[in-house]
Amino acid sequence: MSIVVPVYNEVDNLPDLVARIGDAMAGSGFTFELIAVDDGSTDGSADLLERLAPQYPWLRPVILARNYGQSSALQAGFDRVRGRYVVTLDADLQNEPLDIPLLLQRLETDPNVDMVSGWRRERQDAAISRRLPSLIANRLISRATRVHLHDYGCALKAYRRPIIDRIRLYGELHRFIPSLARDAGARIAEMPVRHHPRTRGQSKYGIDRTFRVILDLVLIVFFMRYRQRPLHAFGGLGLWLATPGVLILAYLLALKIGGEPIGGRPLLIAAVMLILIGAQLVVAGLTGEMLMRVYHEGQGRPQYHVRAPAAADDAAPAPRAAPPRPAGAEAGEAG
């Protein structure tokens, strides 16, 4: 199995993190690799990972050229996983590595679960700055995406490998991995996990994150509901706007036939604008439909995923090829 940890300026936590993950997995019965992806750290985290790699044969550092963000760091790790299961967690030691075998055991014993998401039931964060916005975000995301979880923000999650192979992360979509996994056909369960207060380093999250979550939520809802039928989204809205415009013009036409002047009426301008905007949205929907056909047909991408039988799922998939990169870009990466 593969453990993927994005790292950004966590030099004080890395030695304990690596050691505790090793201790947690030692008696689990799983062979594993730890893919630690340094996301352009400026505090020496990358150098420390390279020094730790010879001490731990299962540690595979991946050093990104600059800071790309958590989603890109996770995707860099996903591109290199070789295990049958994939586990993610943060590098700040707030997640408990001893919970990893528990999540894996759930996947091992329950064939009807493809992803296990951690739930920080007793979260050890400040109530106002972290817990309250998180509570609001969890309820909003659950309602909008219809994937109901108590804790979307918990980084400690376990997946079957085929689910990871089906999803791609861009921008800041790491917050919505459960929704992307459900869209890829995953059956999701939630388990309470332990959570510790941060004792070293600084949190990378601020209150501005709340506004970015709202914008990303709009994207993910559109992606899940209208990705394969953009005409229904844009065209439907366009018809809703154009219809009252047509009715208003019909009303004004009746007035004109009756001899009343309509040239100076604001309703005339409003009707024309509604029709024009509606027509533009319909055209945008048609353009989206053509782009989706190019996406699926031109690149041979499937519109659906087939759930493999349990026996086939137990076989470890072949390693996914990583994108080409310049020589030396991942100094210290262990096999």
Topology (elements, then pairings):
Blueprint: E1 2-7, H1 14-26, E2 33-38, H2 45-52, E3 59-63, H3 70-78, E4 85-88, H4 100-109, E5 115-119, H5 127-145, E6 157-160, H6 161-166, H7 177-183, E7 188-192, H8 209-226, H9 230-257, H10 266-298, H11 310-314
Parallel strand pairs: 1-2, 1-4, 2-3, 5-7
Antiparallel strand pairs: 4-6, 5-6
Helix pairs in contact: 5-8, 9-10
Characterise the protein shown here:
- With 335 residues, this protein is an alpha/beta fold.
- It has two domains: 2-226, Alpha-Beta Complex (Spore Coat Polysaccharide Biosynthesis Protein SpsA, Chain A); 230-297.
- It is built from eleven helices and seven strands.
- Strands 3-2-1-4-6-5-7 form a seven-stranded mixed beta sheet, with helices on both faces.
| Biggest β-sheet: strands ordered side by side in the sheet | 3-2-1-4-6-5-7
What structural class results from the helix and strand content? alpha/beta
Alpha carbon gyration radius: 25 Å
CATH-defined fold name of the largest domain: Spore Coat Polysaccharide Biosynthesis Protein SpsA, Chain A
At the first level of CATH, the class of the largest domain is Alpha Beta
What is the residue-mean pLDDT, rounded to a whole number?
Answer: 83
Shape: elongated
N to C succession of SSEs: EHEHEHEHEHEHHEHHHH
β-strand percent reads: 5-15%
Helix content: 40-55%
Number of strands: 7
Total number of helices = 11
Low-confidence stretches: 314-319, 321-335
Question: What is the number of domains?
Answer: 2
Terminal CA distance: 14 Å
